[in-house]
Amino acid sequence: MSAFFGQVNPVAFFVGGAMLATALGLLFMLATALSGDEKRMRRRLTQVATGRSLTGASQANGPSLRRDTSDSSIAALDRLIKRLMPRPAKMRARLAATGRRISLGEYLLASVVVFAAAVAGFSYFGLSPVASVLFAIGVALGLPHMVVGFLVKRRRNKFVMLLPEAIDLIVRGLRSGLPITESMKIVGQEIPDPVGSEFRGIIESYSVGMTLDQSLWAVAERIDVPEFRFFAISLSVQQETGGNLTETLENLGNILRRRKQMKLKIRAMTGEARASAAILGLLPFIMFGAIMFIHPDYGMVLITTARGHVLLGGGLTSMAIGIGTMFKMTKFEI
């Protein structure tokens, strides 16, 4: 037994133990969450089947009008998030901007799963335990962040594309004699998501006591696009000073449509530069994959040796700077 432990690398033993503990923790939390959901479902089905009203002790388990402030269905994880995570409100707002119901607990669990998978993958390709953990930390922090950023950007772009149609529909409603709230309600029913869902949220907030201005600015902060801020400012100024709201919104719709046309024109003119950046960025990875396929021992020098790690880190850093500069040059603020 002592001979066995003498042959085992302490760092590898520590990494393996940490991965095993992480896997067991994930299984425990998943089992806890599933058992809790199953209990709640059974309790709800019993209440529906027996026709009992949610009074007395049953009201504690029934639906509530209070806002749910939990970040995870697992109580222990929820407490850890609230105590240890820095600026959780900012992360909640970023997850809400995706338009999906992603809790902080689900985001952190996804990061842990990515970390475990990355450690296993890097170890499989021959990296040392310390290097595997360091690279896996970067992947676990970066990959979920990039996925959330992609979802947020895609939803904002779709929102901006549909907003002029929503404003035109509001203008037609105002011209037919409908109030602004009824016109916005029609937008929530007729325009596809994400514009439709956001306008439905505005009307729901207005119906439970918030002012229209507060409802608009709550959505403006979550969506965070200048086009909707223009719309919120137009309505706020009109409520304070008066004036022809129909003409104001019609002019705003024309401005937003011209902004969209200009963005599409810029995207078409910068397509060559973006394609060049993508090709230059992918070419080294394609060549490295070909080398690993043809002569694996030649390419493994970059992965298994300290000098290769230095060269690999320098190359990736210079590539990131160059590609980032090229993409930055193709972006224009309108």
Q: Could you describe the 3D structure shown?
A:
The protein is an all-alpha fold and 334 residues long. It has helices spanning 2-7, 10-50, 75-84, 88-96, 104-124, 129-175, 180-190, 195-207, 212-223, 226-241, 245-269, 271-294, 296-299, 301-304, 306-329. The protein has three domains: 7-42 and 75-153, no CATH class; 156-266, Type II secretion system (T2SS), domain F (Receptor-associated Protein, Up-down Bundle); 270-329, no CATH class. It has 15 helices and no strands. Helix 9 (212-223) runs antiparallel to helix 10 and helix 10 (226-241) packs antiparallel against helix 11. The longest helix is centred in the middle third of the chain and has 47 residues, at 129-175. The protein is elongated. The protein starts with a helix and ends in a 5-residue tail after the last helix.
Descriptive key words:
334 residues, mainly alpha, Receptor-associated Protein, disordered N terminus
Fold topology:
Elements: H1 2-7, H2 10-50, H3 75-84, H4 88-96, H5 104-124, H6 129-175, H7 180-190, H8 195-207, H9 212-223, H10 226-241, H11 245-269, H12 271-294, H13 296-299, H14 301-304, H15 306-329
Helix pairs in contact: 2-5, 5-6, 6-7, 6-11, 7-8, 8-9, 9-10, 10-11, 12-15
